[in-house]
Amino acid sequence: MDIIPQWNLSSIYPSPASMEFLDDIERLGEIGNRLREAAAGSSPMEMLAIRDQGLALSINLTAYASALLSTDSSDPGYLRALSAAEKAEAEFSKACDAFIRNFTDDGDIPEEYSYAVSEIRSMKSHLMTEKEEALAADLALSGSSLWEHLQEMLASSISDGTTLSSLRALAMSGDRNARKSAYDREISLLEKHASSFAYALSGVKGSVLALDGRRGWRSPLERSLFQSRITERTFNALIGAIEDSLPVFHEYFRIKAGLLGISDFSFYDLFAPVGSFDRRYSFMEAASIVISSFDGFSGEAGDFARMAIDSEWIDAAMHEGKAGGAYDTYFPLRGESRVFMNFDGSYDSVLTLSHELGHAFHDHILSGLPMSLSSYPMTTAETASTFSEKLVFQHIAEENAGGDGELFAIDQFLTSASQTIVDIYSRYLFEKAAFERAAEGTLSADDCTSMMEEAQSRAYGDSICVKHPYMWAVKSHYYSADFSYYNYPYAFGELFALSLYRRREEKDFPGLYRKLLMNTGRMSTEAAAGSIGCNISEKDFWMAGIEFIASYIERLGKWL
Fold first, then answer.
1. pLDDT tens-digit series, residues 360-403
2. What pTM does this model have?
3. Average of per-residue pLDDT across 528-541
4. Per DSSP, what are the bridge partners of residue 328?
5. How far apart are CA 164 and CA 151, in angstroms?
6. Could you give the 3-state DSSP secondary structure of residue 534?
7. How many CA atoms lie within 13 A of 476 on its CB side?
8. How many helices (H) and strands (E) does the chain have?
9. Which phi and psi angles does 416 have, rounded to 5°?
């Protein structure tokens, strides 16, 4: 019998009711007070050291409580722990505001901190008054934060006898009737709860617009680009490449429809497996493939994956009350990560394990560094995870070369790529429209479905017949007030990773890759990429990744 692991969090805290957890919540308040006092006249490096200590503790607390709640969204103790952690985090954020407000770069600042200091200057220029920032932090606890939790609770709990996550898993079934039935049931469920999702979304987007405007951001997108550490020029180059690539992906959907033998290719066919490869993997088989794939690239990466799995860092078992999706979370005080996923034995689960361990490896490279030098943006986070996925794809494709397994692996790669390019583009378009509509008033469920259908029409064209008008409800990323446009970084990561992957066999590339990951915590994304010879501000750079994908679409077409 396959044993699917659940993680062990005891090295982080014994329990959410433990004195260690409760004492750290109190200690975070004390560090906040020290930071306020330091703002009165300490040196820049002294102030940075105190802030870094508090940030690490704050992340430790909220990551721990969030991780617990992910495994059981109905547990009141976990909910109380998260509420307490978020309240302490909100108080500490006030101290961070005071730190930013009073920070000066007079004095000796090491060169490696120069980018961190430049970011602080920018943040300083986007602060409201001290009282306004304090009020915003307080209101978030009973406002945008609760709207976000409402979406998470609904998405993990609503059911018609089968949960949403289980219905969505059927999108990968080889039986088209099963896929369509699951799609119809999902749409019916979401339609019944659409107003609740819409109010939650409207609450989050309204809060973001109000606060970003008061803080002097031209738009939520401008703030997002700052958080991603990229310029508007780089963003436009990426979006331009995506728009140019859409006909390439439409051709892929045409080929896939032919391979499936259907003429009315629809949203519920996007994840359908091609061919008769129905291999199911035990968790230990999946772990072995990931470790071997990582080993083939870098001994350090392989050793890390082996250690993470042996140390009970993975929570993969599916059960009622557990949230859907997957993520990696990092605990800076311990220098440890944990991987959350729902393992079902599919090929996709093997890729998910590699994806999240790619995130964790990135954190491992940066562990031990202060937060000012180790916090990296989503753009490069998704690069590391996607690169790891490609290692596993290559491993399985080569293992099944010439057979149905290779056909399946290539199609799965293209399915994933189409999601991170085409579907992500539709999500970007939807979120842009949602902000524009929210600026005029409350978003209704009809508004959201209309905007989602329009966005999908622009992205998919007529390559799919039936679309998914409620995709806005099931994607939790839309409900984050802290990071708007939680979508294009995935496209960034996909295309950047493909560019890097093409260089994987260069003799010195593992060292360059490590250098890139290390630099993501202390440089702009353009500078980190430039440190290993990548110019991400030009559309041609991104088109190289598109060309890599196109080569596999051509290979897939030979099976028609």
1. 999 999 999 999 999 999 999 988 999 999 999 989 988 888 88
2. 0.88
3. 95
4. 339
5. 13
6. coil
7. 18
8. 24, 3
9. -65, -45
